[in-house]
Write a structure and sequence with these properties.
Blueprint: E1 10-13, H1 22-30, E2 36-42, H2 43-48, H3 54-59, E3 69-74, H4 78-89, E4 96-101, H5 106-109, H6 121-134, E5 139-143, H7 154-164, E6 168-172, H8 186-195, E7 200-203, H9 209-219, E8 223-226, H10 235-244, H11 254-272, H12 274-289, H13 295-304, H14 308-322
This protein binds flavin mononucleotide (FMN).
Amino acid sequence: MSDIQKKQPILMLAPLAGISDWPFRLRCQECGADELVTEMVSAMGLLQAPSDSRAYQHLLAFHERERNLTIQLFGHQPDIMAGAAARVSLLPQYKGIDLNFGCPAPKVTGSGSGSALMKNLARSEQIIRAVRKATAKPLSVKMRIGWDSNHINAVDFAKMCEAAGADSLCVHGRTRQQQYAGRADWGVIAQVKQAVSIPVIANGDVFTPQNAQVLLNQTGADGIAIGRGALGNPWLFGQIRQALRGETPTVPDAEEILKTALSHLQDMVTFKGERWALIEMRKHFAWYLKGSKGAAAMRAQINQTEDLTTLVSLLETHFKTLV
Ligand SMILES: Cc1cc2nc3c(=O)[nH]c(=O)nc-3n(C[C@H](O)[C@H](O)[C@H](O)COP(=O)(O)O)c2cc1C
């Protein structure tokens, strides 16, 4: 969250495992996201993977046009987290380091990482202090509002993060128990904002420019992070900026959507090669197609297509008939 205090409110792409690789991040940046975050990267995996391995290269892959890119680390051991932070601090592509204290997945919480850390303030504090010592880069924490509805401890947790050396916070307004269901509680985010002096980014359930305006008004947050709302809709960032300026948000036409989907595909081919790009892009195309006439049939065809030329021509035909 490097430029966080320069430009308010910050519009950030939230970390999305399996989704926020550089081809997607670049689309979001081009459409107006101020800050980008990688998907979560295992601190242990990072330290153990040989730096010339394919896994390591893929985890840390970025594009030279990306700006304000933060890497998110997850883990539960202070020394491992600090070691990984020290290592990524040497990489100039990252402006900042974010610590994942929000992931609800059992395979992450089972080892005491992600949102499980919200139940363990002492361990969380050790991690933040250790990482703080290991890096001079801006350090942010991504947290939830608590473990479950009986343990909503976001305010205490946020104060601890600030005291331990975090430079900013991103608060997803759900408990771990909620995973991604129900509504995000923006009221608790507002309480966190009141309780700390460091910047607070509000997160959860922003799908429209209007959602963003209400969230900012209700919380007084310094910015918002958008996850699911950006899927197939990176234009949301620019639309929010327009709405905040009092302008009418521009809705992308079919031609614009096609252009963006094709650049996304092209970048994915560069990143992962044609075969994997075709597979990886299926979900993105489903999102880009969402709401357009004939989307279901087109999705089915795309999912069976195994060559790039056919795929491109299917997409062109689909979107050109919508113009
Ligand atoms: C598919 C998916 C993957 C996610 N991966 C991460 C992740 O790697 N790190 C993280 O901190 N949060 C992750 N999240 C949580 C999001 O960053 C965000 O907090 C959550 O989706 C709520 O925001 P939204 O309503 O704008 O989607 C993920 C969410 C989804 C749906």
